[in-house]
Amino acid sequence: MGFNHVAGVDEVGRGCLAGPVVAAAVVLDPERYVPRISDSKTVTALERARLYDRITRAACAWAVAACEPGEIDAINIHQASLRAMRRAVLALVPLPDFVLVDAFRVPNLPMAQRGVVHGDSRCTAIAAASIVAKVTRDRLMIELHQQDPRYGFDRHKGYATRDHLEAVSRFGYSEAHRQSFRPLSLFDTIDRVAELPPEGRLPS
């Protein structure tokens, strides 16, 4: 392509009820090959952590950025994802010559870019970014769990699992939750708990 520094960009956390959406941008060094990089969803948590260390040590540049729940509620999750990816790219030093983005094009980037459908499985730089974003976000969710253990963020990382929905039905949304996210399954859980006789409800 004639570009010296090509960044891969990806985000994680779009579908969560709680926590930020996190994006990463990674410029891999062709002289420092990191084996076994693949889409973060296809490797175990332990392997992701190992790859995170190898990628961040070997990369020419890498950066992460986030949009917090309040910002997500204000502008919607799609726009927040694009904003987080833009922030991650612009935080790279030096700035890349070209950007490869998983699926989307990112508005208002000052360099050339291309959206790659299924990029996290087709492009090593995007896969590397997916790993960095995923590990970063998982660690943030563990920190949120330590601040407020009621919801089990360390287990489900903010996704709408059964135990997460049950916790929300007991405690309501916390400051870490996206107030604009109201999945049908959440209402179903709340309604089901409300209909139970007092002896059948979860202890409060």
Strand order of the largest sheet: 3-2-1-4-5
How many helices does DSSP assign?
8
- State the order of secondary-structure elements, H for helix, E for strand: EEHEHHEEHHHHH
Please identify, by name, the CATH architecture of one domain. Answer: 2-Layer Sandwich
Structural class: alpha/beta
CATH-defined topology of one domain: Nucleotidyltransferase, domain 5
CATH superfamily (homologous) name of one domain: Ribonuclease H-like superfamily/Ribonuclease H
Alpha-carbon Rg, integer: 19 Å
Oligomer: single chain
How confident overall, as mean pLDDT? 89
The proportion of strand residues reads 15-25%
CATH first level of one domain: which class? Alpha Beta
Quick overview of this protein structure:
Helices cover 44% and strands 15% of the residues.
Description:
With 204 residues, the protein is an alpha/beta fold. The protein has a domain at 6-146: Nucleotidyltransferase, domain 5. Helix content is 44%, strand content 15%. It has 8 helices and 5 strands; from the N terminus they run E-E-H-E-H-H-E-E-H-H-H-H-H. The protein has helices at residues 45-58, 69-75, 77-90, 119-122, 124-147, 153-156, 162-171, 184-195; strands spanning 6-12, 21-27, 61-67, 98-102, 112-116. It has a 5-stranded mixed beta sheet with strand order 3-2-1-4-5. Helix 1 crosses helix 5 (124-147). The longest helix has 24 residues, at 124-147. The chain is globular, with a radius of gyration of 19 Å. 42% of the residues are buried. The model is unreliable at 189-204 (pLDDT under 50).
